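Page 42, continued from yesterday. The earlier attempt failed because a stray header line got pasted into the input along with the sequence. Redoing it now with the clean sequence only.
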Amino acid sequence: MTSTAKTPLVVALDGGYASYDQEHGLLQAVGARFELRPCFNDEAAALAAVHDADVVMVRESPVSRAVIERMAHCKGVVRYGIGVDNIDQQAARERGIAVANVPDYGTDEVSTHAVSLLLAVARQIVTRDRHVREGRWNAPREHDMYRLRDRTLGLVGYGRIARQVHEKLAGFGFGRVLVHDPKATLPPGAEHASVDEICAESDVISLHVPLTAATRHLIDARRLATVRPTAILVNTGRGGLVDLDALHDTLKSGRLLGAGLDVFETEPVNPDHPIFGLPNVVVSDHIGWYSEEAMRDLQRKATEEAVRILAGNRPLHWLNP
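This time it went through. Structure tokens are written below.
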């Protein structure tokens, strides 16, 4: 007798990885199949892609209420990464669809990138590199430089990445470490502080919180007005944590020494934004998470979540129970 059982289908809404051998292999091992349906951040394409999926895997494309309502029998949505602001978790909860992410990949890479951005700004690496290439040796400094020893480090959020940033900067001799994370247990020497206190008292402000309605533009004109003129802002978290226009105005006026940014509210960025014309800003293209090892970890762990969901098991990192 011929079986009519349907082969479970896992659909990925975004391409961009060099290989999907782990997805195909792990899912084939449990009798499921994997299909890549790139949507290129287009909601209409996502609507068409998800209708027959048992699990949806996504990077940046929108998984809105409308997209979720188009899912006929989906059991879960898995984010390739940490942030899930592109997924309507409430709509998924109402439909009994689990939302999961992968918060435990790329921790070493992002923390290293945050430290790298800080050092590049503090030591004016990009500017000096440009001067040397232009034949300008010992060119006048466009901004002052300050040592990090005995200064104050402020960490907004104290999850996996922030803790590693703290560990990696320990050897630089910061005199105080202020942390805003009411749920975190802090190591000796670190102090609990509000975001306002961190902005007003820190020489380095590093952002490590998720993007939510409450944290959007967490660093806004009001808070930027309180920062020290010797302070450096680093954002490897989510772009929407910072009001980019307000940051530009603060940097241009000299009320903030510099900024290192790997993430932006709108990606890809508009290269005509005036912040990219400032010499005291070092930027990168949301690459902080990346290494060959981290990419493989991310794909494997995301697929393992899909396997758990297909089996009817609780996702390891279930966000909307």
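Notes: The CA atoms of residues 269 and 285 lie 9 Å apart.
Reminder to self: strip header lines before submitting.
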